[in-house]
């Protein structure tokens, strides 16, 4: 077996050193009736490397992917460009095959990259501090709700209905086994009903969670939500799906977010059929000791040279156990390094270009729609909802577009089960060219 | 190991100084030494009513966390804000600058040990 | 220094923070897409001040991150015997496979008929994990072991509620358990009761019995436990818990000792999470991503999270709605890219070789134990499983602590073992040499450990207190970092 270095001679010499006569003696502490016959598992025979490559390549070729189609799918995962350098950096064995940096002297690479990541994310989101990742946006939102409950010592969580339904479902799920309540505020017109959100905030409210831009891509004014939170003593949690937005529109921190959570997948991470994703988590510094997850801090070594360590560990499960701020241990560390490399390469200017072109593509798509399709009204970043006369005409269009190598959108009810089956959630990125939009319009015309 | 004679102690290594109806709480020299370098002290809110034996503060080192239990019942009237910027005071001067909170006594106290008894308890 | 150890030498570059390297303006990168100005209706929302993200040229970026990488120690660099972490070789071919465009560039909401290939691979992985554990019903969704624990406890609560026993919320956790166990129980709204381990490092059946009552929902058990010992009474333990009306949750962190040797389901365990980043060799990435699939028996199966992968006559599909399900715990079906690597690892061993993972892992741990047991204190003598536990009791007499031994190992060219865990012994050193390490490497490590023990015995300890001397940084001030946390860079910090 090619991953096992021992020869049979090594094994027998080692058994001799241990003082047992055979391999099975090493398992004598396992009751005999629990032993299974070696090789008796109901599994396929071993494959050599060439066989595995063939198997996976054949499977991959059965799928249609963003590399040879035009992808207008969003809903929390976006097809942005990932420069080759990002993948090279995270493919370096020293980053890829290291564990959590528990021994800082020999983990300064991971630690400095995390510190740079935390700084860049904090700057992009306009927040004071940021942790070293959560699993994904949905669990980041859930953890934000839990953190707000700790900070305010209140138990009621208000979620705007325009927060991605998957984030809401996971959050309700996380909160449903502990005391307190979590409520959804209905929305309308594929946009956030700010007045209704403000109305729902009361003196028992730990936090209100809004998404900005919201699940439907809508961009709106958060000032009245902030004011209502101030009046009620609640925290404002701002969630987001595509972090590149904040190179273009005002960052959540500047709009007064106490906690800001969302997805970092747009920052150099392939869509990967849902994972690994990157959950981002940022907050005000005064609340940092209630923050979940790992965090890297700057310090110095015994010879007074700058260095980095994991810090504020007493919040975490390995020390505080049942009283920890979260149960998270393994996180998405390598994805932080990917995002750091991506952002280093893009800079403010590159990120702004990505965001501007993502928005420009949507403008162009919407402005050229034939009149049998209606786009949601109001300012949108790179995502919107298209509405058809009925489900059949929508599905007819989807099938036609797919025939032209276009994934034209996500049937809204797939993510939001309450939605009528005639809407499409459509997203654009800088990977969409003018020609792709022309083809999209042509596909719509074809089913008029 | 310092154990001032004028203070009372608990078996959980808190000390208490009672002056009139006001009691000052802190952790003992033994406790700070066992915990190592203190990096953070979580202080109670002023106005909070604490019961005997209730955790009212948390003392943290880099890799350990310890609850601090109230040696006597009462209302928290003052906390040592200086520990926010200088938690190391708990290490340097546990019975002085490292005090944690003052409460207005409401009656109950824990079984308190005098210095001699606490010293014997530590030896055991 | 002995010539047998690689030590650390050579060209090491200091490297500033990326912010200190940055140009006044970022270098422009050439991107695709639709040219256009900010759409009119967004102008009032425009960001006023740039974020301050660096923007380096491509060669500068590559050099920056390559230099940082060189300050790291990974499993590709050298031995990494972190106990309970299962640091094994991560096959390179798996990296290639996971990056195939037909697997990596899939949107999670593509129509299912366009993703049949990846669904087939993931479905097959579910079947394999179920077979290996003897618990046939599987969710791939949990993002890591801790999330697997939360998921498993949610399943148990759902099953109890269905029986009208929702009042059972007590979770029994041995004092040797990982901190995630009690933390997950709290997150699931349950109370943890800690069980004191017996003198042999195993579960004390009498202690267990004393805590089994009508409030018990589950026992969370790691087997082999974190002292590296197999819980030989496992069948009896499970029987007792079941008799009391509770479930047995298995923490699969130490599955590496049992792959192809014995099945959790046969032992009576109801539910187990599998850390694919441990047992099935997906890279740890400096802290993640991991993957924590959960495998369960018939009783818990109806409550598994959605979406679920189902196989029908016309192919695979995702089931999004199910009234009995506990619902989703993650925003997607799971860490697909990680899971694919795990599937490739299992495929490479196959039916005829899988048990060799456990055999060589256990052989290696016992070999290290046999070579070190006279020089170091062994708190629980006898055979170990995939990891062995030592303490610093002997070295303590000379003022040498576990931390000193760990740091000295770095200068001798090895990543230290897990230190000060489990908490049930003083000065713990938990050593897990996995199946992908050669005898030569194990011998070199043992020589280094023996050299440290001898130096300690001889009072030659100066190097140890100051260690490590050779890496790019010496011991770091963790106290200062925690007292005045600096978590982001500001220009004043320079």
Key phrases:
heterotrimer, B: alpha+beta, OB fold (Dihydrolipoamide Acetyltransferase, E2P), six-stranded antiparallel β-sheet, three-stranded antiparallel β-sheet, globular, C: alpha/beta, seven-stranded mixed β-sheet, 16 helices
Total DSSP helices of chain C: 16
Estimate the strand proportion of chain C.
Answer: 5-15%
Total count of strands of chain B: 9
What characterizes the major β-sheet of chain C?
7 strands, mixed
User: Mean pLDDT score of chain B, rounded?
Assistant: 93
Characterization of the model:
The complex is a heterotrimer of chains A (448), B (124) and C (494). Chain A folds into two domains: 70-82 and 347-445, Alpha-Beta Complex (Aspartate Aminotransferase, domain 1), CATH 3.90.1150; 84-343, 3-Layer(aba) Sandwich (Aspartate Aminotransferase, domain 2), CATH 3.40.640.10. Helix content of chain A is 37%, strand content 14%. Chain A has helices at residues 8-18, 49-61, 84-91, 93-96, 108-125, 137-152, 165-175, 194-200, 223-232, 317-320, 333-367, 391-403, 412-415, 434-446, and strands at 70-71, 129-130, 156-160, 181-185, 205-211, 235-240, 259-263, 279-283, 296-300, 306-310, 374-375, 383-387, 406-407, 410-411, 423-427. In chain B, β1 (8-9) and β2 form a beta hairpin. The radius of gyration of chain B is 13 Å and the shape is globular. With 494 residues, chain C is α/β, with parallel strands linked by helices. In chain C, α5 runs parallel beside α11, α6 packs across α7 (180-187) and α11 packs across α14. Chain C starts with 17 loop residues before the first helix and ends in an 11-residue tail after the last helix. Chains in contact: A-B, A-C, B-C. At the A-C interface, α1, α2, α3, α4 and α5 of A face α2, α3, α4, α5 and α6 of C.
